[in-house]
Each structure stands twice: as C-alpha cells, then as structure tokens.
Write a structure and sequence with these properties.
Layout (H helix, E strand, L loop, with lengths): L1 H41 L3 H15 L2 H13 L5 H22 L6 H15 L3 H27 L6 H10 L3 H15 L2 H13 L5 H14 L2 H6 L10 H17 L3 H9 L5 H21 L2 H11 L23 H32 L2 H29 L5 H38 L5 H27 L2 H30 L3 H5 L1 H19 L3 H6 L13 E3 L3 E5 L5 E5 L3
Helix pairs in contact: 1-2, 1-3, 1-6, 2-4, 3-4, 4-9, 4-12, 4-14, 4-15, 5-6, 6-9, 8-9, 8-10, 9-10, 9-14, 10-12, 10-13, 10-14, 12-15, 16-17, 16-18, 16-19, 17-18, 18-22, 19-20, 19-22, 20-22
C-alpha cells in the first residue's frame, strides 16, 4: 500500500508540473513576442515595472520565465537594474494569483477546461487558438492533478507509519524550509511546491506550522533557478538581477522564520480552512517583501552594481566587445567600432551556417540546441549595435559617416534575419528529419552540401565587401545571385528526376530537400545585400532590373528606351 501511495503521489506531482509547463509554453507561443515588447516599453520606473511584472507573471505563471526575459534585456543593456528588480518583485506577487485561484473548490472546471482545450488544439484554424487550447489543457491538468493528489493521500491519512514519517521530516522548521527550497528548485516552480503543500495540509499530513515553513522554502528555492541559468555568463553584471531577487527571498525567510509560530496562531484565529491559510500566507509574504524593497530599490541596485561590476569577456558571445561608449563623440572611431562588432556578428553567423548543415546531414540534436543559443547571441548583438549607432547619430555626422552608419545597420539587420532563418527554419527542418529518422540520397546530400558551400563562400565575400567597399568584389557578389538561381533550378530538376525513378530516400525527404534549398537561397539574398552600398556609391546600380516598356505607335513600328536614354526604333511584328 505504501509503494502504491508513493507512486500515485509522484504521478500526481509529475502531472502538476506538466500542466504548469503547458500553460507557460502555450502563453509564450501565443503572446511571447508581445510580452517582451510590452516589458521593453514599461520598464521606465519602479512602480510601472512592478505592475508589469505582476501582470506578466500572472499570465505566464512562472517568475523564472519572467526573470529569464529580463536577464536577456539586461544583458543587451536595454533595461536598468532598478526597474528590473521591481519587475521581479511584481513577478513574485504574480505567482501567488494562480495559487489563490486553485485554493478554491474547482473540481467542475477541470473537465470543462480539458474538453475546451482539446477542441481548440485539434480544431483551431489559427495558431494562436491552438496555443490557447494548450493553455486550457495545462490548467485542466493542474486541477486534475490536485484532485488526484488528494485522492491518493486520503487512504494514507490514518496510517500511523506515514503520519510518523511526515511528522519526523517536518518537525524541524529549518529542515522543512530546506526541503521546500529543494522541491521548488528541482521543479523550477514555487507554484507547484505551494500547491503540493496545500494538498498535504488538506490531507492532514502537515501541520499549518510545517506548511508555512515549506512555503517559505518554496519562495527561496525558486530564486535559485534564474541565478543558475546565468552562471554560464562570464560577466558578473548579468547575475545582478537574479542575485538581487535571491537576497530578497533570503531576507524574507530571515524575517519570517523566528516569528512563524505566532504568525500561525494569528492566522488560525482567522482561518478554519488550512488550504486558504497557506494560500493567503504565500500572498502575504510576497506582498510584504515587495513593500519593504520597492522604496530603497535604487540604492539597492547601486549596491549590487558595485558588488557585481561589469566585466567584458570574449567567451560570452552575447556581450559586445568593440562597442566603446567613450568614443561616441568621435563618429569616425565609433563607426569603426560598430563595424568591428558587426564583423564579429558575421563570424557567429558563419559558424551557425556551418553547423546547420552538419546538424541536418548527421541528425545531431546537440548542434540544434547550440545553434539556437548562438541565434540568441546574434539577436542581442544586433540590438546592441542598433542602440550604439543611434547614440552615434545624435551627434553631427557628415554625408560619408551617415552613409556608413546606414551600411552598418543594414548589414546587422540582414545578419540577424539570416540567424532567424537558420534557427527557425533550417533547424525546424533538421528537427523533422531527426524525429523521422530520415536520410537524404547520396546525390541529394551532395547537392545540398555544394549549394551550402557556395552560400558560405559568398558570406565571406560579403563581409570583405562590407569592410573594404571593393566595387569589383561587390559586382562578383551580385553576379552570384544568378548562379544561385541556376543551381537551385538544376538541383530541383535532379531531385524530380530521382522522384520519377522511385528513389525511396528522395521520396521520403522531398519536402525537406526543396525547403532547405529555398531557405539557403533566402539566406543568400540577405548576404548579397552587402554589395549594394559599394555599387551605389560607385554609380554602378540601375534603378530597376525591369526592361523599359515599349511604346507602340501604329501597327508597324515600336519605340523603346535604350541603355543610354535614347529612343531606338524597331520593326514590330504582325
């Protein structure tokens, strides 16, 4: 019986975590980009930031997810530390809202949410409807898991051994707090730990005193996840916000732990239902800690900045190396710095491009993850370069410097687009190939490798054109566009020929083969954009590639504009 109860308990917790994960991923897929833009707009002062953190986390149901978004903003220099800490104070309060919701009897809602969610996910015509269906399924699973936990624990309620075990484990408040911290850290969720605590106290396995100690531990443990996520960065400044949030949690535990017994007595005089007691204490703890820290927040931020100073390192791809703020008043030097950072961005794109074909041909899952991380670095560098150029253009620039600033911006934007195509398109195709355990024919793989090699070679040529402004190299780069079109057409014809003879590998990978060629061609188009500034400056660009329209006069003759702007007369066919 004991083993059965333990297995049911583990299964219920796993279902709870999976439901929470579905809610978070569904919201991020449906509204992730809008949430990021919203956060970027409102991070102006601590009070707006607090409200934004509360609202966003109430939707995401994960202060960890909010923290990771903010870490990316802070790493790119898009947000000051004070407002970022205010968002985290709001995020900590926001996580309590779903706990409040689920503390009420909601047994009838679970099947309704599951049914609605499945219908929306299966029948939804739009992607956002499917994502919201995923959210509904996640909420339904969370409610279902809570009822499963209560049903699983009910038979063990009167078993002396089980009650003695729980009493022994939770007898020491400090040990109980540490258990709650470990559970929240392991599950990446204070919400899941608090909901589990509510189930245990409802089944009388925990006293209210032990339950509140677990809640304190859950709030502490959830602060470790963002900190550990940021440990990979060599720049201590990237850890300011998670360290600041962890200190807030530690201070809260130090304040509340000595007075936990009188707090329990006070709350028990107001609450007959221990579940409501736990839920409201969780909310009260986070509200009090927010009020204590929000007023001295700017001073607190300055202390953290001194303790964790900015350190630039070449090991961190997300950190700009060459964007020197001290030379912004000298545009020629500042633009040279921005150009060097853009060249570094191009090196990362070249590595991504190389790894992408390796991942596709070898079914390497690890490379797919590495490429996604590099794309995040490219996104941050692109933002940093744009902000730097904007600061440079605030001063007085001559025509040449203004043109160079636009060239740098255009190349950075095109490189960022290439990174997105690699990450969101080519790696999606790699994932399909890996999941289906598919293989290209030997001829098909060779064609893709050759096409890919030419695209990479032209990326290097584009970076040379950007750096030197060489007109001859720029003309060569644009001429490669015609070559790529011809190669794509030839590769598609050869692929169709293999389909006609019934090659099994070609039939299985037909869509992948064509889509990879298409995406590589799109990448090449962005690469070739580097040639236009040099050719335009040399006056070697036509306004359009279209032939001039013919002017028909009568039935026998027509006139057209030749390349020198003169009208040429030709005989018109009948």
């Amino acid at each position: 019986m004991g083993v059965r109860i333990l297995l049911d308990l583990i299964g219920g917790v796993a279902l709870l975590l999976w439901g929470l994960y579905m809610v978070q991923t569904g919201i991020v897929r449906a509204y992730g980009a809008r949430i990021r833009r919203f956060l970027g707009r409102v991070l102006k002062n601590r009070y707006h930031a607090f409200a934004a953190g509360l609202g966003v986390t109430a939707i995401l149901q994960s202060s960890t997810a909010t923290s990771l978004m903010l870490t990316s903003f802070a790493a790119a220099g898009l947000v000051q530390l004070g407002p970022a800490l205010a968002v985290m104070l709001g995020a900590n309060v926001g996580t309590t809202l779903i706990v409040q919701l689920l503390s009420f009897d909601s047994s009838i809602i679970s099947p309704l949410l599951l049914t609605t969610g499945v219908l929306a996910y299966k029948r939804g015509a739009r992607t956002v409807v499917k994502d919201l269906g995923r959210v509904a399924i996640g909420l339904g699973l969370m409610l279902l898991s809570l009822h499963l936990l209560l049903d699983s624990l009910a038979p063990a309620e009167h078993v002396p051994v089980v009650r003695a075990l729980f009493a022994a484990v939770t007898n020491e408040p400090l040990l109980t707090l540490l258990i709650g911290a470990v559970l929240a850290w392991a599950s990446h969720s204070s919400v899941a730990t608090v909901l589990l605590t509510m189930s245990l106290v409802s089944s009388h396995f925990l006293t209210p005193f032990a339950a509140l100690a677990l809640v304190l531990g859950a709030n502490l443990g959830s602060a470790f996840n963002p900190l550990l996520e940021g440990m990979g960065s060599g720049n201590p400044a990237h850890r300011r916000m998670p360290v600041g949030n962890l200190i807030n949690r530690l201070v809260g535990c130090l304040i509340f732990m000595p007075f936990l017994a009188p707090i329990v007595e006070l709350l028990e005089s107001f609450y007959q239902n221990p579940v409501r007691l736990v839920a409201d204490f969780h909310t009260l703890f986070n509200l009090i800690m927010a009020l204590l820290f929000i007023l001295p927040l700017n001073l607190y931020a300055r202390v953290l900045e001194k303790l964790l100073p900015e350190v630039k390192t070449t090991d961190d791809l997300t950190t700009p190396i060459y964007l020197d703020a001290s030379v912004i008043e000298t545009p020629s030097v500042a633009l040279a710095c921005a150009a060097r950072e853009t060249m570094r961005m191009g090196d990362i794109i070249d590595t991504m491009l190389q790894q992408s074909m390796t991942a596709i041909l070898t079914n390497d899952r690890m490379l797919v993850g590495e490429i996604s991380d590099k794309d995040n670095a490219v996104d941050r560098l692109n933002e940093a370069i744009k902000l730097y150029i904007v600061k440079v253009t605030h001063g007085s620039l001559d025509d040449v410097e203004g043109q160079r600033a636009m060239e740098i911006l255009n190349l950075a934007i095109n490189l960022e687009h290439i990174g997105d195509i690699i990450d969101m398109n080519l790696m999606e195709l790699a994932g399909k190939k890996i999941r289906g355990q598919l293989e290209f024919s030997a001829e098909g793989a060779a064609e893709l490798e050759e096409f890919h090699r030419i695209v990479r070679d032209n990326l290097k040529l584009a970076m040379t054109v950007f750096l030197s402004g060489d007109v001859k190299a720029a003309r060569q780069l644009l001429e490669e566009k015609s070559r790529i079109r011809e190669l794509e057409f030839a590769a598609a014809e050869k692929h169709m020929a293999r389909l006609k003879v019934g090659r099994v590998e070609s039939i299985e990978t037909s869509a992948l083969h064509i889509d990879i060629l298409r995406d590589l061609k799109r990448i090449h188009s962005h690469i070739c954009s580097a040639a236009y500034p040099a050719l335009e400056a040399a006056g070697q660009l036509n306004r359009t590639r279209l032939k001039p329209p013919s002017i028909r006069i009568g039935k026998k003759k027509q006139f057209s504009m030749n390349m020198n702007g003169r009208i040429a007369k030709e005989e018109a066919g009948n």
